[in-house]
Design goal:
Length: 146
């Protein structure tokens, strides 16, 4: 495994975490200006959810060297999580700005974009975390070095 692939997760995690912190500004504005419960909830989810995603990428990047995976599996783990992170981040941004639910493929075109982002986010997360579990299990099955 290359150090560069680990740095990809840390780098993209830091970008998502920075964006999450910036989402705190509209969240605070929604609280102060009384934009309504739905808007406050949307910006709270954007702020805290994107922060959790960023931290997850950074933590996975730090742990990646411990996993036992082939090069192709490493590639899919990293880029599925990165795609998932950006898709979810765009989804929560659009939900905060436009007030779109995006949980069903219905309504105006922007709602479909939010739905597609959520779908990419879910699929990428499932692939990345499944490969993380696989790599950790394979590492646990290796004989302990003495």
């Amino acid at each position: 495994m290359s150090e560069r692939i680990q740095l990809q997760l840390v780098f993209h995690g830091a970008i998502v975490l920075l964006v999450a912190l910036l989402f705190g500004f509209p969240f605070g504005a929604a609280l102060r200006a009384g934009w309504g419960d739905e808007s406050i909830r949307a910006w709270r989810v954007a702020h805290s959810g994107a922060a959790a995603i960023g931290v997850t990428l950074i933590a996975t990047g730090a742990a990646l060297r411990q996993l036992v995976l082939g090069h192709r599996e490493e590639f899919w783990l990293v880029w599925s999580l990165v795609a998932s992170a950006y898709a979810f981040t765009l989804s929560v941004l659009l939900r905060g700005v436009a007030g779109m639910g995006g949980f069903y493929p219905t309504g105006p075109p922007l709602s479909w974009v939010v739905f597609a982002c959520n779908l990419v986010g879910v699929l990428g997360s499932l692939i990345g975390i499944a490969l993380t579990v696989r790599g950790a299990f394979a590492a646990l099955r290796r004989p302990a070095a003495e």
